[in-house]
Each structure stands twice: as C-alpha cells, then as structure tokens.
Amino acid sequence: MTSTATTGHEKLTMAQALNRALRESMAADDSVVVFGEDVGALGGVFRITDGLTAEFGDTRCFDTPLAESGIVGMAVGMAMNGMRPVVEMQFDAFAYPAFEQITSHVAKMRNRTRGTVSLPMVIRIPYAGGIGGVEHHCDSSEAYYAHTPGLHVVTPANAADAHRLLRAAIASPDPVVFMEPKKLYWTKEEVDLGAELPGIGRAMIRREGTDATLIAYGPSVPVALEAAEVAAQEGRSLQVVDLRSIVPFDDETVCAAVRSTGRAVVVAEAPGFASVASEIVARVTERCFHSLAAPVRRAVGFDIPFPAPKLEHVQLPGVDRVLDAVDDLQWDLS
Amino acid sequence: MTRDLDLLLPSPHPVELIDPTGRTVAEATRELPDDAALLRAFAGLTTARRINDQASALARQGRLAVYPSSHGQEACQVAAAQVLTDDDWLFPTYRDTAAVVLRGVDVAEAFLPLQGAWHSGYDPHEHRTAPQATPLATQLLHAVGVAHAARLRGEPTVALALCGDGATSEGDFHEALNFAAVFRAPVVFLVQNNQYAISVPLARQSVAPSLAHKGIGYGVPGERVDGNDVAALLAVLGTAMARARAGEGPQLVEAHTYRMQPHTNADDSRRYRQDDEVAGWAERDPLARLETWLRQHDLLDDARLAAVTADADQLAARMRTELAGDATPEPAELFAHVYATPTPQLVEQAAVVADELSREDAHR
Ligand SMILES: Cc1ncc(C[n+]2csc(CCOP(=O)(O)OP(=O)(O)O)c2C)c(N)n1
Ligand SMILES: [Mg+2]
Q1: CB contact under 8 A, B171 and A66
Q2: Given CB atoms, is A321 within the 8 Å cutoff of chain B?
Q3: Phi and psi (nearest 5°) for B324?
Q4: What is the residue with the minimal CA distance to atom 3 of ligand 1?
Q5: Candidates B174, B184, B272, B318; catalytic one
Q6: Is the CB of B334 less than 8 angstroms away from the CB of A97?
Q7: What pLDDT score does B7 carry?
Q8: Per-residue pLDDT at B364
Q9: Could you give the ipTM of this predicted complex?
C-alpha cells in the first residue's frame, strides 16, 4: 500500500501531518466526513482539523452538539449508510460518555451481523500526559479499547506515521481508535509523506541494538529512544521497537526483536496493572521464553489516577525509570 | 402525576428586575430582593470580578496552569452562592471558582487544581461544596443523589447544581432532570447560558425555544432569567430553592449571560466570534448595572464603594501570595488516597518513587 497525493520531504509537526492526512482522505473520498466538538471554525482545540470546514464546507467537517455518545452513535449510523466518519473526542477522559457506543456497538457491529454490517469509522482521541494538562485532561485510556475485541487501536509516535496510519485508518473497513499522543503534536520533523511505510498492524524497529530491546508505543517511543541514547554512552546497546499498532499486535516483529537481544523492557505511560504493557510482557514471555536471559520488565506509570500536572513527572516513566528496569535484567548472570 | 403544562413553561422573556441601564424594571414579575441582599450581592460581584481579573493575570504569568474566567457571569456566581444556606450543597463546574470562594472556600484551596495540584483542593464536606466538575454535566446527577439522600434522611438540604449551555447536550443533563423529577428531589439546576461552548454558539447547540424549555419533557418547571441581573437571579433562584425545600421538587433555571473572555486563557476566541458582539454585552455588565441602581437608591456612596473595593483588593493580594506557586507537593501523597487502605502494590510503588526521587536529589 502506498499513500497517494503527497511526495517529497518537508518539515511538519505531527498535528500538521494529521491535518494533511484528513485533507487528503477528504479530497480522495467524498464519503469521508469529520465531526466532533469545536472541529469546525476553531479547527479543534489542538487544531488538527484546522481549515477543513473552509476547504470542504460544513457538510464535510462540522461541529456537533456537545455529546460524545451522540457523536459516536451518529457516526455508527452514518457508517452503516455508506459514509466514513472520522470523529474527534476532545480529550482522552472526555471520550468516556461514548464508551457505551464504542464497546457495545462500534466494536461489535461486524460480529453480531455476521459480517454484513461493517463500520469504516475512525475515533480520534488525543491521549496521555506530558502537556501540563489539569485534571481529566491526561488519561492513558488505550487499554480500555485494546481490551475490547472488534476495535483496531493505533498510535503513532512521529509525524510520518501519524500521516500514514491515519490515512490507513480512514481507509480501513474496520473501526479504528486512533490515539494521538498529545505531547508529540508539536514536535517538528523532516518527513517524506510519500514514503512507503508499513500499515496498521506492523511494528517498526526505531533503533538497532544488541543488548536489550525496549518495546514502546506512542508517547513513550521518544523516551525509549532517549534512554537508548543514554545507555549507548554508558556502553549498553539498546534496540527500540515502536508498536505503532496495539491492535492488531505485531507478534512477529516484536518477538524477533526480543529474540535477537534476549532481554526486554516495555515502556508505557499507563498504569501498569492490567495494561497494554502487561499484555506485551505476557505475549513476549509466552513466545520467547527460551530466548530470554531475564524476566521481561516494565517501566510504566504507577497504579494511581493521573496526577496532573505538578507531579506528572513522578508518574510518567522517564529515562531513569527505563534504565533502572534495564539494569534489573540480570546482567551478572549472563 | 401529570403536571399542568402551564406550570412547567418558562416565562416568554427572561425575568429582569434591574435593566442594563441600572433602572428598576417597571412591569417586573418578581419582587426585588431587599436592600441588604442587594448590598451583599454588590460586594460579592466586586469580589468575583476581582477574582477573575487576578486569576487571569496569574494564568498569564504561568502561576495557574489554566483559568476559565467567569468574567461577565459574576451575577450568576454571586447569586448561586448567596441563595444557599449552610445546609445546602453547591455543585460547581470548572468555571465556577468565584462561586466556590464566595461560598466560603479559601482561595488558597479553591485554586489548587488550577495551579496544577493532583487533587480537587478543598474538603467538599466543610463547605458543602462538591469538587469542581470538569467532565461536563456529570455533577448534575451527583446533585440529585445528594438531594435525594437528604430527603431520605430528613434533612432540609437543597442541592444547587451548575452547568453551562453546552453541557445541556450531554446525556447526563437529561438523566439528571428526569431522575430529579421522578424522585421529586430538592435540586435546582442553574444553567449559565453564556452563549458558547468553547467555539460553538448556542444556535448550533440547540434549537429548543430556550434551554429552560428542556425541563418540560421531564416534568421539571423551567424559568429564564437575565443572567447579568443579580437581583433577578436572587429572586428566581430564591423561589426555586424555597420550592425545592418545601418538597415541591426540582426546577431548571436558565440564566442568559455571556462569556466575556475566551473559553480559557489558552483559547483564541477571534477564530469564532466578533469583537462587536463582545462589546454589545459589555453594556449589559452585571456590576455596573447594580452599582448604578444602588447609587440611585442612595445605598452606595464613594466611601462604601471604597470599603468594598478594599476587601476585594485584599483577597486579590492574598491570591498573589498564596498562589505564588512555590509550594512543592509531596509525591508520597499520590499513593495515600487511591483507596482507604493502600494496596500492597501501591505500598511497593510508593517506595519506588521515594527511591527514584532520592537518587535524583543526590544527583543535584
Ligand atoms: C464530557 C466532556 N466533554 C468535553 C469536555 C471539554 N470541554 C470543556 S468545557 C467545554 C465547553 C462547555 O461549554 P458550556 O457547557 O457551555 O460551559 P462554559 O465552558 O461555556 O462555561 C468542553 C467541550 C469536557 N470537559 N467534558
Ligand atoms: Mg457556555
């Protein structure tokens, strides 16, 4: 699969890359509609939908009344009737009123209609910490969705992936919960939007390394990369895997990576208990047990409500917590 | 029990007792509150305006993480606090910090969450004031619950629940009205219709004849009031509270007002509204209107005004010192209140944090 329309290198933030993906998808397919809270004139509180109403008109990108269950429920109906809705939840914690629609209908429609009704829709959710947000503005809610069979759960860690994966999500015949790490929205980088990148369901190696593998996704990928950089200066070679897609999960890439080093640490912001990180540890342990020199460790958030924002540095796994976990990988035994 | 539709219908125009020029409305449908109440309201308005100005300044300086100002909506803030007795409960939103302070909560505690604390600041029981709610409309059901429990326990409590125009679109708003009506709970819902939900104007939020009409379908009487006329608010809310206290059930009050400033200091309102619209509402300012009226009725002179202003200044000064933002919160506390007794895992995790932080300190 290649993404059409844009080629060539340019400097873009993740926010701009997402905006570009929406534009291209809307231009390519009239059935793509964007709606949610403040996505019209304001362009979304994070400006991801900036200019879409001006360019495509307010039947293609529009504000709804303030009701998340309404937004997702209406998207279900529109997707049942030939459209491809891309809806925005304003913040992670404000998607919860839509939880009923997401878990009972978005996730189950294909299955309960034995494949006759598909829901090609995308639910975009800005998520996780790192922006100094006050109460209720920084939840790591990915596990709720990942735990719900029927939903694809995707989370980019850079602008190129944001563009590539959002286009793929909109083109997908299945509903995709598209989780956007807020703290990466404004990171500018050189991207080639025409480059061929793996689609949904594939992880990527972000940094080669031989001593241990860091497995990360979304907001934790830059932390893992930074930790690998620090470790390199200390003489330890860490490999970094970026999941990109939580569901479907790329067992093949992740396990091959772990087998190549024999040690692994999972890095994630969410509270560790019953989390995506737990699932990764379980899968890797089940599949790579005989290649492992030490138990797989986690550098994750504590099991507390997100403490915004004065103490968020205490909650979020930083380089030190990652390297502590790496240090615990029983090096003296090998 | 079916209710007569006439009893549920809001008046065709918002109740107004003092007009925007500060004159008593001739054909007013309610009695004016007494002089003492209006003087108290004036002091409240002055304080609330100062709180807004000072908090906005602190947000600009980065002393507050964010501030959603209620500038222009102070009459609603003041009336909401003033109609409550010590038995009553207030259920405020993120925009209602002024009401919370006027209810008696210390500014140093009220502003903690906006400063970036991990918790909601004050002890809700102390002032019978729920934590300020950010997830929209969710607090309305809690108000119904508190009110219903009070009835079951034979307490004279009425719950006053605040929300915005946008929040009336959330499912919880509708469920709260219905529950309150079915259980005849002593709740008053005050919708501060400030014409916007962030960027979305009321016209795109609802095409109901008014937000107060939303009560009809649930059997909850609705009333509309000029939200910049504190006299009218005191009268309408006072009646609603009295009705609720007398066991006559919930009421929905829609206050017509205007959010004079951006949604928060982080918002750019030029993207969705015109300056002249804002200027038009400046002429309906709640503070100026009551000041004119009080002066015309010889209830306010320069000396009295100076005294009221001095009190407000003192509060602002306290905000500047208390909210200087130097206090470092204690990380260990993050693990103390998740459950009544921390789980074994949390005890372990607290130790991990202590270790991480001590090594960080050693680094410095
Ligand atoms: C459930 C939920 N969805 C979205 C938000 C984000 N949000 C915060 S304030 C706001 C607008 C609310 O408008 P309104 O109810 O009119 O109150 P106002 O801010 O104008 O006082 C929105 C969308 C939220 N806090 N909670
Ligand atoms: Mg509003």
Answers
A1: no
A2: yes
A3: -65, -15
A4: A94
A5: B272
A6: no
A7: 87
A8: 67
A9: 0.95
Q: Which residues of chain A have pLDDT under 70?
A: 1-8, 334
Domain ranges in chain A?
Answer: 12-192, 204-333
Topology given in CATH for the domain delimited by A204-333: Rossmann fold (3.40.50)
The whole-angstrom separation of Cα B112 and Cα B105 is 11
Residue extents of the structural domains in chain B: 5-329, 332-363
In Å, how far are A137, B73, B141 from B252, measured between CA atoms?
A: 29, 18, 14
Reading the block at residue B63, the tokens are 């002393």
Residue B328, pLDDT score? 75
Nearest residue of chain B to residue A71 (CA atoms)? B170
Q: How far apart are CA A134 and CA A137, in angstroms?
A: 6
Asked whether the beta carbons of residue B334 and residue A311 sit closer than 8 angstroms, the reply is yes
Task: Give yes or no for a contact between A181 and A229, defined as CB atoms under 8 angstroms apart.
Answer: no
pLDDT tens for B32-85 read: 999 999 999 999 999 999 999 999 999 999 999 999 999 999 999 999 999 999
Set of chain B residues whose Cβ sits within 8 Å of the Cβ of A320: 356, 359-360
pLDDT tens digits along A197-214: 999 999 999 999 999 999
Nearest CA in chain A to B169: A66
Q: Is residue B136 within 6 Å of ligand 1 at its C-beta?
A: yes
CB contact under 8 A, A134 and B166: no
pLDDT of residue B148 exceeding 90: yes
Q: Strands of chain A (E only): list them.
A: 9-13, 32-36, 61-63, 84-88, 122-127, 152-154, 176-181, 188-192, 204-207, 212-216, 238-242, 245-247, 264-271, 297-301
Dist CA B287 CA A332 (whole Å): 73
- Ligand 1 centre from B105 Cα, in Å? 23
- pLDDT of B139 higher than 90: yes
The beta-carbon neighbor of A311 closest among B206, B329, B349 is B329
Asked if the C-beta of A99 comes within 8 angstroms of chain B's C-beta atoms, the answer is no
A174 lines ligand 1 (CB under 6 A): no
Name A296's bridge partners: none
**Best mutation site among A63, A88, A92, A94 for ligand 1, i.e. most ligand atoms within 8 A of its Cβ?**
A94
Ligand 1 touching residue B77 (CB < 6 A): no
Residues A324, B356: C-beta atoms closer than 8 Å: yes
Reported as a single tens digit per residue, the pLDDT across A64-93 is 999 999 999 999 999 999 999 999 999 999
Q: Is residue B196 within 6 Å of ligand 1 at its C-beta?
A: yes
Model confidence at B2, pLDDT cuts 50, 70, 90, reads low
CATH superfamily for domain B5-329: Thiamin diphosphate (ThDP)-binding fold, Pyr/PP domains (3.40.50.970)
Q: What architecture does CATH give domain A12-192?
A: 3-Layer(aba) Sandwich (3.40)
Torsion of CA A137, A143, A148, A154, to 10 degrees: 80
Mean pLDDT score of chain B:
96
Q: Which atom of ligand 1 is nearest to the CA of B197?
A: 13
Contact residues for B195 (Cβ-Cβ < 8 A; gap 6+):
B165, B201, B202, B257, B258, B259
- Over residues B151-165, mean pLDDT: 98
What is the CB neighbour count within 10 angstroms for residue B61?
12
Q: Which residues pair with A265 in a beta bridge?
A: A214, A297
pLDDT > 90: what percent of chain A?
92
Q: Is the CB of A307 under 6 A from ligand 1?
A: no
Q: Which helix (H) or strand (E) holds B91?
A: strand B89-91
Q: pLDDT tens digits, residue range B306-340? A: 999 999 999 999 999 999 876 778 999 999 999 99
